[in-house]
Amino acid sequence: MNKDDKILIIGAGLCGSLLALRLAQRGYKIELFESRPDLRKVDISAGRSINLALSDRGLKGLELCGVVEKAKSICIPMLGRQMHDVKGNTFDSKYSGREGEYINSISRGDLNAILLDEVDSHENVNIHFNKKCIDVDLDETRIQFYDYKTKKEFSVIGDVIFGADGAGSILRKHYISERKFLFSYSQNYLTHGYKELEIPADENGKNQLSKGHLHIWPRGDFMLIALPNMDGSFTVTLFLSYDEGEYSFANLTSEEKITEFFEKEFPDALALIPNIKEEFLNNPTGFLGTVKCSPWSYQNKTLLIGDASHAIVPFYGQGMNASFEDVYVFDGILNMGLNTWQEVFKAFEKERKKDTDAIADLAVDNFHEMKDHVANPLFKEKRKIEMDLEEHFPEEYFSKYAMVTFKEDIPYSEAMKKGRAQDKALLNLIADDEINTHLRMSKDELKQILKTIKEETNE
Ligand code: FAD
Protein backbone atom coordinates (compact mmCIF):
# COMPACT_ATOMS: atom_id res chain seq x y z
CA MET A 1 0.00 0.00 0.00
CA ASN A 2 1.64 3.21 -1.10
CA LYS A 3 0.89 6.55 -2.73
CA ASP A 4 1.98 5.31 -6.15
CA ASP A 5 -0.74 2.65 -6.22
CA LYS A 6 -3.02 3.12 -9.18
CA ILE A 7 -6.55 3.40 -7.79
CA LEU A 8 -9.53 2.77 -10.05
CA ILE A 9 -12.96 3.95 -8.90
CA ILE A 10 -16.10 2.78 -10.71
CA GLY A 11 -18.88 5.38 -10.43
CA ALA A 12 -18.62 9.17 -10.15
CA GLY A 13 -21.93 9.54 -8.33
CA LEU A 14 -22.17 11.05 -4.87
CA CYS A 15 -20.00 8.50 -3.07
CA GLY A 16 -17.46 7.85 -5.82
CA SER A 17 -16.80 11.57 -6.33
CA LEU A 18 -16.33 12.28 -2.64
CA LEU A 19 -14.12 9.22 -2.21
CA ALA A 20 -11.98 10.22 -5.21
CA LEU A 21 -11.62 13.71 -3.77
CA ARG A 22 -10.57 12.49 -0.34
CA LEU A 23 -8.08 9.92 -1.63
CA ALA A 24 -6.61 12.55 -3.99
CA GLN A 25 -6.29 14.95 -1.07
CA ARG A 26 -4.37 12.22 0.75
CA GLY A 27 -1.95 11.98 -2.16
CA TYR A 28 -3.26 8.94 -4.03
CA LYS A 29 -3.54 8.83 -7.84
CA ILE A 30 -7.07 8.11 -9.00
CA GLU A 31 -8.73 7.13 -12.27
CA LEU A 32 -12.47 7.73 -11.86
CA PHE A 33 -14.86 6.09 -14.36
CA GLU A 34 -18.51 6.99 -14.91
CA SER A 35 -20.93 5.35 -17.32
CA ARG A 36 -23.07 8.44 -17.79
CA PRO A 37 -22.14 11.68 -19.55
CA ASP A 38 -20.81 14.61 -17.54
CA LEU A 39 -23.91 15.85 -15.69
CA ARG A 40 -22.46 19.37 -15.67
CA LYS A 41 -22.92 19.43 -19.44
CA VAL A 42 -25.92 17.15 -20.05
CA ASP A 43 -29.18 17.10 -18.04
CA ILE A 44 -29.57 13.50 -16.88
CA SER A 45 -31.64 14.05 -13.75
CA ALA A 46 -35.15 13.31 -15.03
CA GLY A 47 -37.19 11.11 -12.76
CA ARG A 48 -34.46 10.05 -10.36
CA SER A 49 -34.64 11.57 -6.86
CA ILE A 50 -34.00 15.07 -8.12
CA ASN A 51 -33.54 16.39 -4.62
CA LEU A 52 -32.40 14.72 -1.43
CA ALA A 53 -32.40 15.39 2.31
CA LEU A 54 -28.88 16.18 3.44
CA SER A 55 -28.19 16.04 7.18
CA ASP A 56 -25.35 16.01 9.68
CA ARG A 57 -23.63 12.74 8.76
CA GLY A 58 -23.45 13.81 5.13
CA LEU A 59 -22.26 17.27 6.11
CA LYS A 60 -19.51 15.67 8.21
CA GLY A 61 -18.17 13.84 5.14
CA LEU A 62 -18.36 16.99 3.02
CA GLU A 63 -16.60 19.00 5.72
CA LEU A 64 -13.74 16.51 5.86
CA CYS A 65 -13.14 17.16 2.16
CA GLY A 66 -13.47 20.94 2.40
CA VAL A 67 -16.67 21.23 0.36
CA VAL A 68 -19.27 21.76 3.06
CA GLU A 69 -19.65 25.51 2.53
CA LYS A 70 -20.23 25.07 -1.19
CA ALA A 71 -22.83 22.41 -0.48
CA LYS A 72 -24.54 24.59 2.14
CA SER A 73 -24.85 27.40 -0.39
CA ILE A 74 -27.35 25.27 -2.35
CA CYS A 75 -29.22 23.88 0.70
CA ILE A 76 -32.80 24.71 1.63
CA PRO A 77 -33.40 24.14 5.36
CA MET A 78 -36.47 22.05 6.25
CA LEU A 79 -37.31 22.52 9.94
CA GLY A 80 -39.96 19.83 10.13
CA ARG A 81 -42.66 17.86 8.41
CA GLN A 82 -45.91 19.39 7.22
CA MET A 83 -48.65 16.78 7.00
CA HIS A 84 -51.60 17.18 4.60
CA ASP A 85 -54.88 15.30 5.18
CA VAL A 86 -57.41 14.46 2.46
CA LYS A 87 -59.43 17.58 3.25
CA GLY A 88 -56.39 19.79 2.72
CA ASN A 89 -55.86 20.51 6.43
CA THR A 90 -52.23 20.66 7.49
CA PHE A 91 -50.34 20.21 10.72
CA ASP A 92 -46.67 20.72 11.38
CA SER A 93 -44.26 18.53 13.29
CA LYS A 94 -40.73 19.79 13.97
CA TYR A 95 -37.74 17.51 13.51
CA SER A 96 -36.25 18.57 16.82
CA GLY A 97 -37.08 20.50 19.97
CA ARG A 98 -33.55 21.93 19.93
CA GLU A 99 -32.59 25.08 18.09
CA GLY A 100 -30.56 24.67 14.91
CA GLU A 101 -31.44 21.03 14.17
CA TYR A 102 -32.94 20.70 10.72
CA ILE A 103 -32.43 18.79 7.49
CA ASN A 104 -31.70 20.28 4.08
CA SER A 105 -33.20 19.82 0.67
CA ILE A 106 -30.43 19.73 -1.91
CA SER A 107 -30.35 19.03 -5.65
CA ARG A 108 -28.62 15.72 -6.41
CA GLY A 109 -27.30 17.05 -9.71
CA ASP A 110 -25.98 20.33 -8.29
CA LEU A 111 -24.29 18.58 -5.36
CA ASN A 112 -22.72 16.00 -7.65
CA ALA A 113 -21.56 18.85 -9.90
CA ILE A 114 -19.88 20.60 -6.94
CA LEU A 115 -18.03 17.39 -6.12
CA LEU A 116 -17.02 16.80 -9.75
CA ASP A 117 -15.68 20.38 -9.99
CA GLU A 118 -13.51 19.77 -6.92
CA VAL A 119 -12.33 16.43 -8.26
CA ASP A 120 -11.62 17.95 -11.68
CA SER A 121 -9.47 20.66 -10.19
CA HIS A 122 -7.32 18.14 -8.32
CA GLU A 123 -4.20 17.11 -10.17
CA ASN A 124 -4.29 13.57 -8.73
CA VAL A 125 -7.58 12.56 -10.40
CA ASN A 126 -8.59 11.88 -13.99
CA ILE A 127 -12.34 11.56 -14.63
CA HIS A 128 -13.55 9.47 -17.57
CA PHE A 129 -17.21 9.94 -18.53
CA ASN A 130 -19.29 7.71 -20.83
CA LYS A 131 -17.22 4.68 -19.78
CA LYS A 132 -19.34 1.81 -18.58
CA CYS A 133 -17.70 -0.93 -16.59
CA ILE A 134 -18.86 -4.18 -18.17
CA ASP A 135 -16.50 -6.72 -16.65
CA VAL A 136 -14.05 -7.03 -13.76
CA ASP A 137 -11.20 -9.49 -13.34
CA LEU A 138 -10.83 -9.58 -9.58
CA ASP A 139 -7.43 -11.30 -9.42
CA GLU A 140 -5.88 -9.14 -12.14
CA THR A 141 -7.61 -5.96 -10.82
CA ARG A 142 -8.53 -5.31 -14.42
CA ILE A 143 -11.71 -3.59 -15.57
CA GLN A 144 -13.24 -3.91 -18.99
CA PHE A 145 -15.09 -0.78 -20.15
CA TYR A 146 -17.43 0.08 -22.99
CA ASP A 147 -16.90 3.60 -24.31
CA TYR A 148 -20.23 5.09 -25.38
CA LYS A 149 -18.44 7.72 -27.48
CA THR A 150 -16.13 5.48 -29.54
CA LYS A 151 -18.43 2.45 -29.22
CA LYS A 152 -15.34 0.39 -28.45
CA GLU A 153 -14.23 -1.69 -25.48
CA PHE A 154 -10.96 -1.23 -23.64
CA SER A 155 -9.46 -2.45 -20.38
CA VAL A 156 -7.55 -0.82 -17.54
CA ILE A 157 -5.40 -2.49 -14.88
CA GLY A 158 -4.95 -0.92 -11.48
CA ASP A 159 -3.60 -1.89 -8.08
CA VAL A 160 -6.91 -1.40 -6.27
CA ILE A 161 -10.54 -1.11 -7.43
CA PHE A 162 -13.29 0.67 -5.52
CA GLY A 163 -16.85 -0.12 -6.57
CA ALA A 164 -18.84 3.05 -5.92
CA ASP A 165 -21.25 2.07 -8.66
CA GLY A 166 -24.49 2.21 -6.73
CA ALA A 167 -27.26 -0.20 -5.83
CA GLY A 168 -26.87 -2.24 -9.05
CA SER A 169 -23.07 -2.52 -8.63
CA ILE A 170 -21.32 -4.53 -11.31
CA LEU A 171 -18.40 -5.20 -8.97
CA ARG A 172 -20.83 -6.74 -6.48
CA LYS A 173 -22.31 -8.88 -9.25
CA HIS A 174 -18.80 -10.22 -9.91
CA TYR A 175 -18.39 -11.15 -6.26
CA ILE A 176 -21.50 -13.30 -6.72
CA SER A 177 -20.78 -14.79 -10.12
CA GLU A 178 -17.07 -15.54 -9.76
CA ARG A 179 -17.54 -17.57 -6.56
CA LYS A 180 -13.99 -16.91 -5.44
CA PHE A 181 -14.99 -16.61 -1.81
CA LEU A 182 -18.02 -17.08 0.42
CA PHE A 183 -20.08 -14.02 -0.39
CA SER A 184 -23.33 -13.47 1.53
CA TYR A 185 -25.85 -11.31 -0.20
CA SER A 186 -29.48 -10.31 0.23
CA GLN A 187 -31.68 -8.01 -1.77
CA ASN A 188 -35.18 -7.24 -0.52
CA TYR A 189 -37.50 -5.18 -2.67
CA LEU A 190 -40.30 -3.16 -1.15
CA THR A 191 -43.75 -3.87 -2.53
CA HIS A 192 -43.87 -0.13 -3.29
CA GLY A 193 -42.20 1.79 -6.09
CA TYR A 194 -41.92 5.54 -6.63
CA LYS A 195 -42.62 8.14 -9.25
CA GLU A 196 -41.52 11.77 -9.34
CA LEU A 197 -43.77 14.69 -10.28
CA GLU A 198 -43.41 18.44 -10.02
CA ILE A 199 -45.19 21.33 -8.34
CA PRO A 200 -43.84 24.31 -10.29
CA ALA A 201 -43.23 27.75 -8.81
CA ASP A 202 -46.15 30.19 -9.20
CA GLU A 203 -46.17 32.86 -11.90
CA ASN A 204 -44.00 35.11 -9.68
CA GLY A 205 -41.43 32.38 -9.18
CA LYS A 206 -42.60 31.80 -5.60
CA ASN A 207 -43.10 28.42 -3.94
CA GLN A 208 -46.71 27.25 -3.64
CA LEU A 209 -46.16 25.27 -0.43
CA SER A 210 -44.21 26.24 2.67
CA LYS A 211 -40.52 26.08 1.72
CA GLY A 212 -39.27 25.25 5.21
CA HIS A 213 -40.95 21.84 5.42
CA LEU A 214 -40.77 18.36 4.02
CA HIS A 215 -44.39 17.82 2.99
CA ILE A 216 -46.13 14.50 3.53
CA TRP A 217 -49.57 13.30 2.45
CA PRO A 218 -49.77 10.07 4.53
CA ARG A 219 -52.54 7.74 3.40
CA GLY A 220 -51.83 4.46 5.20
CA ASP A 221 -50.96 2.22 2.26
CA PHE A 222 -49.26 4.87 0.18
CA MET A 223 -48.04 8.45 0.44
CA LEU A 224 -46.91 11.51 -1.40
CA ILE A 225 -43.99 13.65 -0.27
CA ALA A 226 -42.56 16.93 -1.57
CA LEU A 227 -39.18 18.61 -1.08
CA PRO A 228 -38.43 22.23 -2.08
CA ASN A 229 -36.06 23.28 -4.88
CA MET A 230 -34.08 26.51 -5.20
CA ASP A 231 -36.20 27.72 -8.15
CA GLY A 232 -39.44 27.75 -6.12
CA SER A 233 -40.64 24.38 -7.42
CA PHE A 234 -41.15 21.20 -5.37
CA THR A 235 -40.18 17.71 -6.38
CA VAL A 236 -43.08 15.46 -5.46
CA THR A 237 -42.65 11.70 -5.01
CA LEU A 238 -45.49 9.22 -4.96
CA PHE A 239 -44.74 5.98 -3.10
CA LEU A 240 -47.31 3.40 -4.12
CA SER A 241 -47.68 -0.36 -4.39
CA TYR A 242 -46.68 -1.88 -7.72
CA ASP A 243 -49.67 -4.11 -8.09
CA GLU A 244 -51.67 -4.42 -4.86
CA GLY A 245 -54.70 -2.54 -3.60
CA GLU A 246 -57.40 -0.46 -5.26
CA TYR A 247 -54.77 1.87 -6.73
CA SER A 248 -51.33 0.73 -7.82
CA PHE A 249 -48.76 1.57 -10.47
CA ALA A 250 -50.05 -1.46 -12.37
CA ASN A 251 -53.56 -0.05 -12.73
CA LEU A 252 -52.91 3.71 -12.87
CA THR A 253 -52.40 3.60 -16.61
CA SER A 254 -55.10 5.90 -17.97
CA GLU A 255 -55.54 9.65 -17.58
CA GLU A 256 -59.00 9.12 -16.04
CA LYS A 257 -57.76 6.72 -13.40
CA ILE A 258 -54.78 8.90 -12.48
CA THR A 259 -57.03 11.95 -12.06
CA GLU A 260 -59.57 9.93 -10.08
CA PHE A 261 -56.84 8.72 -7.72
CA PHE A 262 -55.37 12.17 -7.10
CA GLU A 263 -58.80 13.85 -6.78
CA LYS A 264 -59.78 11.33 -4.16
CA GLU A 265 -56.54 11.10 -2.20
CA PHE A 266 -54.51 14.27 -2.83
CA PRO A 267 -56.88 17.00 -4.08
CA ASP A 268 -54.78 19.87 -2.67
CA ALA A 269 -51.61 18.53 -4.29
CA LEU A 270 -53.40 17.82 -7.58
CA ALA A 271 -54.39 21.48 -7.82
CA LEU A 272 -50.67 22.38 -7.83
CA ILE A 273 -49.43 19.79 -10.36
CA PRO A 274 -50.51 21.13 -13.77
CA ASN A 275 -48.84 18.39 -15.84
CA ILE A 276 -49.91 15.45 -13.73
CA LYS A 277 -51.06 13.22 -16.60
CA GLU A 278 -48.01 13.75 -18.81
CA GLU A 279 -45.60 13.43 -15.92
CA PHE A 280 -47.31 10.39 -14.48
CA LEU A 281 -47.40 8.56 -17.78
CA ASN A 282 -43.91 9.61 -18.96
CA ASN A 283 -41.76 9.63 -15.82
CA PRO A 284 -40.25 6.27 -14.91
CA THR A 285 -41.47 4.18 -11.98
CA GLY A 286 -38.48 3.42 -9.76
CA PHE A 287 -38.07 0.42 -7.49
CA LEU A 288 -36.82 0.47 -3.93
CA GLY A 289 -34.88 -2.14 -2.07
CA THR A 290 -32.38 -3.00 0.60
CA VAL A 291 -29.06 -4.65 -0.24
CA LYS A 292 -26.94 -6.19 2.49
CA CYS A 293 -23.81 -8.15 1.72
CA SER A 294 -20.50 -9.33 3.13
CA PRO A 295 -17.56 -9.30 2.74
CA TRP A 296 -17.30 -5.95 1.02
CA SER A 297 -13.74 -6.57 -0.11
CA TYR A 298 -11.70 -9.15 -2.00
CA GLN A 299 -8.15 -9.66 -0.73
CA ASN A 300 -6.10 -6.47 -1.10
CA LYS A 301 -7.70 -5.74 -4.45
CA THR A 302 -11.29 -4.50 -4.36
CA LEU A 303 -13.78 -2.79 -2.06
CA LEU A 304 -17.50 -2.00 -2.35
CA ILE A 305 -18.54 1.35 -0.88
CA GLY A 306 -21.70 3.49 -0.70
CA ASP A 307 -24.91 2.02 -2.13
CA ALA A 308 -22.90 -0.72 -3.82
CA SER A 309 -22.33 -2.29 -0.39
CA HIS A 310 -25.46 -1.15 1.45
CA ALA A 311 -28.34 0.18 -0.62
CA ILE A 312 -31.24 1.24 1.60
CA VAL A 313 -34.78 2.50 1.08
CA PRO A 314 -35.01 6.31 1.20
CA PHE A 315 -37.43 6.81 4.11
CA TYR A 316 -34.91 8.00 6.68
CA GLY A 317 -33.26 10.27 4.12
CA GLN A 318 -29.95 8.60 4.92
CA GLY A 319 -28.62 6.73 1.85
CA MET A 320 -26.43 9.56 0.60
CA ASN A 321 -25.63 10.62 4.15
CA ALA A 322 -24.47 7.09 4.98
CA SER A 323 -22.39 6.99 1.79
CA PHE A 324 -20.67 10.27 2.69
CA GLU A 325 -20.16 8.93 6.22
CA ASP A 326 -18.53 5.85 4.62
CA VAL A 327 -15.87 8.17 3.19
CA TYR A 328 -15.41 9.78 6.61
CA VAL A 329 -15.05 6.41 8.35
CA PHE A 330 -12.75 5.08 5.61
CA ASP A 331 -10.53 8.13 6.04
CA GLY A 332 -10.36 7.42 9.78
CA ILE A 333 -9.24 3.85 9.04
CA LEU A 334 -6.51 5.18 6.72
CA ASN A 335 -5.29 7.30 9.64
CA MET A 336 -4.66 4.12 11.65
CA GLY A 337 -1.43 3.48 9.76
CA LEU A 338 -2.25 -0.07 8.63
CA ASN A 339 0.14 -1.68 6.16
CA THR A 340 -1.96 -3.24 3.44
CA TRP A 341 -5.19 -2.45 1.59
CA GLN A 342 -6.51 -5.78 2.82
CA GLU A 343 -6.07 -4.71 6.45
CA VAL A 344 -7.69 -1.37 5.68
CA PHE A 345 -10.66 -2.97 3.90
CA LYS A 346 -11.23 -5.47 6.70
CA ALA A 347 -10.99 -2.81 9.40
CA PHE A 348 -13.41 -0.60 7.47
CA GLU A 349 -16.07 -3.28 7.17
CA LYS A 350 -15.63 -4.30 10.82
CA GLU A 351 -16.16 -0.72 11.92
CA ARG A 352 -18.95 0.10 9.51
CA LYS A 353 -21.17 -2.85 8.66
CA LYS A 354 -23.14 -2.98 11.90
CA ASP A 355 -24.06 0.66 11.33
CA THR A 356 -25.10 0.34 7.70
CA ASP A 357 -27.17 -2.73 8.64
CA ALA A 358 -28.83 -0.64 11.35
CA ILE A 359 -29.74 2.27 9.09
CA ALA A 360 -31.08 -0.20 6.52
CA ASP A 361 -33.51 -1.58 9.12
CA LEU A 362 -34.41 1.86 10.47
CA ALA A 363 -35.18 3.06 6.95
CA VAL A 364 -37.71 0.26 6.44
CA ASP A 365 -39.30 1.11 9.84
CA ASN A 366 -39.60 4.71 8.76
CA PHE A 367 -41.44 3.70 5.59
CA HIS A 368 -44.33 2.56 7.78
CA GLU A 369 -43.97 5.56 10.09
CA MET A 370 -44.18 8.07 7.25
CA LYS A 371 -46.99 6.59 5.21
CA ASP A 372 -49.14 5.72 8.19
CA HIS A 373 -48.07 6.50 11.75
CA VAL A 374 -47.32 10.22 11.35
CA ALA A 375 -51.08 10.81 11.14
CA ASN A 376 -51.79 8.51 14.09
CA PRO A 377 -52.85 10.30 17.35
CA LEU A 378 -50.53 8.17 19.50
CA PHE A 379 -47.57 8.98 17.28
CA LYS A 380 -48.44 12.68 17.36
CA GLU A 381 -48.58 12.62 21.17
CA LYS A 382 -45.23 10.88 21.33
CA ARG A 383 -43.60 13.42 19.00
CA LYS A 384 -45.05 16.27 21.07
CA ILE A 385 -43.50 14.93 24.27
CA GLU A 386 -40.21 14.33 22.49
CA MET A 387 -40.15 17.92 21.28
CA ASP A 388 -40.84 19.15 24.82
CA LEU A 389 -38.13 16.91 26.27
CA GLU A 390 -35.60 18.10 23.69
CA GLU A 391 -36.53 21.71 24.29
CA HIS A 392 -36.23 21.53 28.08
CA PHE A 393 -33.43 18.98 28.34
CA PRO A 394 -31.41 19.59 25.17
CA GLU A 395 -28.31 17.88 26.51
CA GLU A 396 -30.11 14.90 27.99
CA TYR A 397 -32.78 13.75 25.58
CA PHE A 398 -32.33 12.89 21.92
CA SER A 399 -35.17 11.18 20.06
CA LYS A 400 -34.33 8.30 17.77
CA TYR A 401 -34.84 10.59 14.78
CA ALA A 402 -32.50 13.18 16.29
CA MET A 403 -29.80 10.61 17.04
CA VAL A 404 -29.90 9.23 13.50
CA THR A 405 -30.13 12.58 11.78
CA PHE A 406 -28.30 15.12 13.92
CA LYS A 407 -25.98 13.23 16.28
CA GLU A 408 -23.30 12.27 13.83
CA ASP A 409 -21.03 11.23 16.69
CA ILE A 410 -23.41 8.38 17.64
CA PRO A 411 -23.09 5.34 15.33
CA TYR A 412 -26.33 4.28 13.58
CA SER A 413 -26.34 0.98 15.48
CA GLU A 414 -26.32 2.75 18.85
CA ALA A 415 -28.94 5.23 17.72
CA MET A 416 -31.14 2.32 16.70
CA LYS A 417 -30.71 0.42 19.95
CA LYS A 418 -31.19 3.36 22.25
CA GLY A 419 -33.88 4.99 20.11
CA ARG A 420 -36.01 1.85 19.98
CA ALA A 421 -35.78 1.39 23.76
CA GLN A 422 -36.77 5.03 24.32
CA ASP A 423 -39.70 4.73 21.91
CA LYS A 424 -40.97 1.68 23.72
CA ALA A 425 -40.73 3.34 27.13
CA LEU A 426 -42.48 6.49 25.92
CA LEU A 427 -45.28 4.66 24.12
CA ASN A 428 -45.87 2.56 27.24
CA LEU A 429 -46.20 5.69 29.38
CA ILE A 430 -48.74 7.15 26.93
CA ALA A 431 -50.68 3.89 26.58
CA ASP A 432 -50.85 3.50 30.37
CA ASP A 433 -52.31 7.02 30.62
CA GLU A 434 -49.41 8.08 32.79
CA ILE A 435 -48.99 11.18 30.69
CA ASN A 436 -51.71 13.63 29.77
CA THR A 437 -50.39 15.19 26.62
CA HIS A 438 -53.37 17.49 26.18
CA LEU A 439 -52.11 19.71 28.97
CA ARG A 440 -48.86 21.61 28.67
CA MET A 441 -46.49 19.79 30.96
CA SER A 442 -44.36 21.56 33.52
CA LYS A 443 -40.60 21.12 33.49
CA ASP A 444 -40.88 19.00 36.66
CA GLU A 445 -43.36 16.65 34.99
CA LEU A 446 -41.11 16.35 31.97
CA LYS A 447 -38.16 15.68 34.27
CA GLN A 448 -40.11 12.81 35.80
CA ILE A 449 -40.83 11.40 32.32
CA LEU A 450 -37.15 11.66 31.44
CA LYS A 451 -36.25 9.83 34.64
CA THR A 452 -38.70 7.02 33.86
CA ILE A 453 -37.38 6.69 30.30
CA LYS A 454 -33.81 6.49 31.61
CA GLU A 455 -34.80 3.82 34.13
CA GLU A 456 -36.65 1.81 31.48
CA THR A 457 -33.73 2.02 29.07
CA ASN A 458 -31.18 1.18 31.79
CA GLU A 459 -29.29 4.41 31.46
P1 FAD B 1 -25.20 6.36 -6.88
O1 FAD B 1 -25.63 7.72 -6.51
O2 FAD B 1 -26.21 5.43 -7.46
O3 FAD B 1 -23.99 6.51 -7.89
C1 FAD B 1 -23.44 5.42 -8.59
C2 FAD B 1 -22.74 5.96 -9.82
O4 FAD B 1 -22.12 4.89 -10.48
C3 FAD B 1 -23.71 6.59 -10.81
O5 FAD B 1 -23.21 7.82 -11.24
C4 FAD B 1 -23.79 5.58 -11.94
O6 FAD B 1 -24.04 6.17 -13.19
C5 FAD B 1 -22.40 4.96 -11.87
N1 FAD B 1 -22.36 3.60 -12.40
C6 FAD B 1 -23.23 2.60 -12.14
N2 FAD B 1 -22.86 1.50 -12.82
C7 FAD B 1 -21.74 1.80 -13.49
C8 FAD B 1 -20.92 1.07 -14.37
N3 FAD B 1 -21.18 -0.20 -14.69
N4 FAD B 1 -19.82 1.68 -14.90
C9 FAD B 1 -19.55 2.97 -14.59
N5 FAD B 1 -20.31 3.72 -13.77
C10 FAD B 1 -21.40 3.14 -13.22
N6 FAD B 1 -30.34 9.62 0.41
C11 FAD B 1 -30.28 10.59 1.35
O7 FAD B 1 -29.30 10.70 2.09
N7 FAD B 1 -31.31 11.47 1.50
C12 FAD B 1 -32.45 11.40 0.73
O8 FAD B 1 -33.37 12.21 0.90
C13 FAD B 1 -32.54 10.38 -0.25
N8 FAD B 1 -33.63 10.27 -1.03
C14 FAD B 1 -33.68 9.31 -1.99
C15 FAD B 1 -34.84 9.18 -2.75
C16 FAD B 1 -34.95 8.18 -3.68
C17 FAD B 1 -36.21 8.06 -4.49
C18 FAD B 1 -33.87 7.29 -3.90
C19 FAD B 1 -33.95 6.20 -4.90
C20 FAD B 1 -32.71 7.39 -3.13
C21 FAD B 1 -32.60 8.40 -2.16
N9 FAD B 1 -31.47 8.53 -1.35
C22 FAD B 1 -31.42 9.50 -0.39
C23 FAD B 1 -30.36 7.58 -1.46
C24 FAD B 1 -29.22 8.12 -2.32
O9 FAD B 1 -29.70 8.45 -3.59
C25 FAD B 1 -28.12 7.08 -2.43
O10 FAD B 1 -27.83 6.51 -1.20
C26 FAD B 1 -26.84 7.70 -3.00
O11 FAD B 1 -27.09 8.18 -4.28
C27 FAD B 1 -25.72 6.67 -3.00
O12 FAD B 1 -24.61 7.19 -3.67
P2 FAD B 1 -23.65 6.23 -4.48
O13 FAD B 1 -22.63 7.12 -5.09
O14 FAD B 1 -23.22 5.10 -3.63
O15 FAD B 1 -24.57 5.61 -5.62
From TrEMBL:
Q: What SUPFAM superfamilies does the record tag this protein with? A: FAD/NAD(P)-binding domain (SSF51905)
- Please give one Pfam family short name: FAD_binding_3
Tell me the keywords, alphabetical order.
FAD, Flavoprotein, Monooxygenase, NADP, Oxidoreductase, Pyridine nucleotide biosynthesis
Q: Which Gene3D superfamilies match?
A: FAD/NAD(P)-binding domain
Q: Could you identify this protein by its name?
A: Kynurenine 3-monooxygenase
| GO molecular function (one) | FAD binding
The record's gene field reads kmo
What job does this protein perform?
Answer: Catalyzes the hydroxylation of L-kynurenine (L-Kyn) to form 3-hydroxy-L-kynurenine (L-3OHKyn). Required for synthesis of quinolinic acid.
